[in-house]
Amino acid sequence: MRLSIIAVVLSIGVLALFGAPARAHDGTIDLTFTDWAQQTGDHFDADPWKGWIDVTVQNSSTNVWGDFHFEICGATNVYFEMDPPPLVSSQSPTTWVIGTNPGGYSTLDAYFYDDPVMPGEIATFQIYTNNTAAQNAWFGVCMWPTPVPEPASLVLLALGALLLRRR
């Protein structure tokens, strides 16, 4: 009897130490894009109120993506953070810009024109968020791609500029 009580106490101790989630804040969002429309992924947050969100997106459109945009939505005082770097991507090289939109929500724009996401391909991103100020239990991450400009479009723009200049 005494041995079984000790075994139960030890089991509870092991579960308390190792059974807790190792990535309390971290989350996962999987989306498929067929066009340029913005989509929102849900993130349910918990202590320590900051960490990584793994994002997997599939390009099911007929266009090539050259950049991808993230925006915190549905909650205030949640930010993309620079330290650690805010973004890890399957596209290399990737540059990024962190900003704030007119509504006061944090934005993160990723650019990868040297390694675009082709139709049918999957891209992965890890984004780092900080929610320690407000400790929101939920916030959304709005996302959308933008296309690589086509050479034909650039030629048309140049011709239009030339015609305007001639006037």
Summary tags:
167 residues, alpha+beta, 5-stranded mixed β-sheet, 5-stranded antiparallel β-sheet
List the helices and strands and how they pair.
Blueprint: H1 2-18, E1 27-33, E2 39-44, E3 50-59, E4 65-73, E5 79-80, E6 87-89, E7 95-100, E8 106-111, E9 122-130, E10 138-147, H2 151-166
Parallel strand pairs: 1-3
Antiparallel strand pairs: 2-10, 3-9, 4-8, 4-10, 5-9, 6-9, 7-8
Walk me through this protein's architecture:
Helices cover 20% and strands 41% of the residues. With 167 residues, it is an alpha+beta fold. It has a single domain, classed as Immunoglobulin-like, CATH 2.60.40. The strands form two sheets. Strands 1, 3, 5, 6 and 9 form a five-stranded mixed beta sheet that branches. Strand 7 (95-100) and strand 8 form a beta hairpin. The longest helix is centred in the first third of the chain and has 17 residues, at 2-18. The chain starts with a helix and ends with a helix. 22% of the residues are buried.
